[in-house]
Amino acid sequence: MSRLGARLDRLSGPRRCPECGFPGPLPRDIEVKTVVRVTELDEEGRPLPMPPLEPEYCEGCGRPMPVIRMQPLDEKSRGT
Q1: How many of the other CB atoms lie within 10 Å of CB of 6?
Q2: What confidence tens digit (pLDDT) does each residue in 4-58 have?
Q3: Which of 42, 67, 41 lies closest to 52, judged by CA?
Q4: How far is residue 59's CA from residue 14's CA, in Å, rounded to a whole number?
Q5: Checking phi first, is residue 49 left (phi over 0); if not, alpha (psi -120 to 50) or beta?
Q6: Exposed, middle or buried, 58 (CB in 10 Å: 0-12/13-18/19+)?
Q7: Is residue 28 part of a domain?
Q8: Structural domain span for residue 35
Q9: 4 in a structural domain
Q10: Are 38 and 47 in contact (CB under 8 A)?
Q11: Number of folded domains in the chain?
Q12: In a domain? residue 50
């Protein structure tokens, strides 16, 4: 590639990943994976520590995929 071509590539900024759309927003048709984890309790009713989730990476660019954490439901909000 010529020096001019290389310079134009740098000036145009980072290229968008076809899978996750990085550096822009996530595409509308991206698959969202929901992971449900059950909290185990010890003998005294305290929650045991959970192992960390394995990171998932984009198949297109290798960047870590964002994780959206949700607040746990307590007994009242589940209607029990």
Answers
A1: 10
A2: 766 666 666 667 888 888 888 877 887 888 888 888 899 998 989 988 888 989 8
A3: 67
A4: 17
A5: beta
A6: middle
A7: yes
A8: 13-68
A9: no
A10: no
A11: 1
A12: yes
At residue 22, the pLDDT reads 82
Whether 6 is covered by a domain: the verdict is no
Q: CA-based angle 20:52:16, to the nearest 5?
A: 10
19-26 — which CB contacts under 8 Å span 24+ positions?
19/58, 19/59, 19/60, 19/61, 20/58, 20/60, 20/61, 20/63, 20/65, 22/58, 22/61, 22/63, 26/66
Q: Is 64 helix (H, G, I), strand (E, B) or coil?
A: strand
Taking alpha carbons only, the member of 67, 63, 55 closest to residue 19 is 63
